[in-house]
Design goal:
Elements: H1 2-16, H2 23-27, E1 39-42, E2 48-51, E3 57-59, H3 65-68, E4 91-95, E5 98-99, E6 102-103, H4 106-114, E7 118-120, E8 132-136, H5 145-162, E9 170-175, H6 177-188, E10 209-215, H7 223-231, E11 233-235, E12 238-240, H8 242-245, H9 249-252, E13 263-265, H10 278-284, H11 291-298, H12 304-331, E14 342-348, E15 351-354, E16 357-362, E17 365-369, H13 384-388, E18 389-392, H14 398-401, E19 423-427, H15 438-449
Parallel strand pairs: 1-8, 1-9, 7-8, 9-10, 10-14, 13-16, 14-19
Antiparallel strand pairs: 2-3, 2-4, 5-6, 11-12, 15-18, 16-17
Length: about 450
């Protein structure tokens, strides 16, 4: 494990001096290896393009529309019988590689091709022996993550067919929420274990997955996801409203793990509050329980009774999504009897990142505060900045990346957080830019291509 820490430190030191590694010179010579496992690249939330039946891109949109357009068109309807989200005709079509000139996944793909000598594989097409291949898992990130897990299972099985090897193993590069998808797959495969608290392990990844690189993955959840549900998510010059975000089943599965002290009192003491309990959301009038949000929802309907009926349906679906998310996060931290794959984590630890929210009492009313500057009447001696923010990548804290409830590495990991990782490398990069970081790319290729 220590050699990975040293490798990351050396790479980062080089970049700090303004000298970047020549990745092609470092790795092109390794092309003699003909049995290199194929790679699957799994993007995070909002990392796949969504197109409609006419082929028009609805997410993120072309050109500057990506930063100017409203996003009400992304809201999903709810099936009144199952309370599951309903397909709206949008399909995933490739990764969000660039948006209005900004790089998201384009550079990591370029490095895989140029320095790693991988070429893009397409499911259903036979491969040329002796070449390296990478595949993209584009998925509709609005739906329950288990849909993407099923897609991943299908893709791996198809890759085995295309390579003519029923015992073939793959490597996975997973960004953000994509890491949770990969981790669930390796434990349970496409089986839905979220209807109870039993979590029967199948070790589906055994013999199918060799190595996994987790990039900025919120392994113990993200308080930033709570921010998005409460005030919406800013995209360019507009926001995706809380009522739209609430229709994305996947987002609930990013909430802070119950092991986290995610909410504090005005005095800085942890509060025993369950983020997966709908009563909390009603009590503080968050998301679809906010009166302004409810008024906007009602305006969508011609008759008042139709609006009220729709709100009842949304609330039932909200409750269901919370319960599934509770089990989803727990399913990823229970102990394994064996670990037949190798995981590395890569992530940021230089930017202050939301780690907790504070409940402030104002004239007898409890009000949530998302940022230290929001505190109206700060108490003497309480360092809200240190309590509410921790080092990370502005989205995911270092502690969550490592699946730890505390930053202090000297404190043993919680016994209910089983996270077998070979090592971790830290970058000074923001969440959406992690894949573009050349130190990450350098260490990633070393991780994938090394044979020891």
């Amino acid at each position: 494990m220590m050699r990975w820490f040293l490798l990351g430190a050396l790479a980062l030191t080089g970049c700090a001096t303004g000298v970047a590694p020549d990745l092609e010179r470092l790795y092109v010579g390794s092309g003699a290896t003909v049995d290199q496992p194929p790679v699957i690249l799994i993007p995070g939330l909002m990392g796949s393009r969504l197109v409609d039946a006419d082929g028009t891109e609805q997410w993120p949109g072309k050109g500057w529309r990506a930063f100017l357009a409203g996003r009400d068109n992304l809201a999903l309807a709810v099936d009144s019988a199952t309370l599951e989200s309903v397909d709206d005709g949008l399909v995933a079509h490739g990764l969000t590689d660039r948006v209005a000139g900004r790089d998201y996944y384009a550079s990591i793909i370029r490095i895989l091709e140029s320095a790693g000598q991988y070429q893009r594989g397409r499911p259903g097409e036979r491969v040329t022996p002796g070449r390296r291949y990478y595949y993209e898992l584009a998925y509709d990130w609005r739906h329950d993550n288990l849909r993407a897990v099923a897609q991943l299972d299908d893709l791996i099985e198809q890759i085995r067919v295309d390579h003519g090897d029923p015992e073939l193993q793959v490597d996975i590069i997973a960004h953000s929420m994509g890491g949770l998808i990969a981790r669930y797959y390796m434990r349970y495969g496409p089986t839905d274990v979220l209807d109870s608290n039993d979590f029967p392990l199948s070790y589906r990844g055994e013999g199918r997955v060799r190595r996994v690189a987790l990039l900025g993955t919120p392994n113990l959840g993200s308080v930033s996801s709570l921010h998005a549900f409460i005030v919406g998510e800013r995209i360019g010059l507009r926001r995706i409203s809380p009522e739209v975000m609430a229709t994305f089943s996947s987002m609930y599965q990013l909430f802070p793990h119950p092991l986290n002290d995610w909410v504090l009192s005005h005095r800085g003491a942890p509060l025993d509050r369950d983020v997966f309990d709908v009563v909390i959301w009603r009590r503080f009038e968050w998301s679809i329980f906010d009166q302004d949000v409810r008024a906007r929802i009602r305006k969508q309907f011609r008759l008042d009774e139709e609006g009220e009926a729709h709100l009842v349906l949304l609330e039932a679906a909200f409750h269901r999504n919370l319960e599934r998310a509770r089990r989803f996060v727990w399913s990823l931290t229970i102990s394994l009897e064996r670990v037949p794959w190798t995981m590395m984590t890569f992530g940021g630890d230089c930017h202050l990142t939301p780690a907790r929210v504070v409940i402030e009492e104002v004239r007898g009313e409890s009000v949530v505060r998302l940022w230290p500057d929001d505190i109206r009447q700060p108490l003497p001696g309480v360092d809200y900045d240190r309590l509410m923010l921790e080092p990370g990548d502005r989205r995911v804290t270092k502690a969550s990346l490592l699946a730890r409830e505390t930053l202090d590495p000297a404190v043993p990991r919680h016994p209910w957080s089983f996270f077998p990782v070979a090592g971790s490398i830290f970058l000074c990069e923001e969440h959406d830019r992690l894949a573009t970081n050349i130190s990450f790319q350098d260490n990633l290729l070393q991780f994938l291509l090394s044979r020891d």
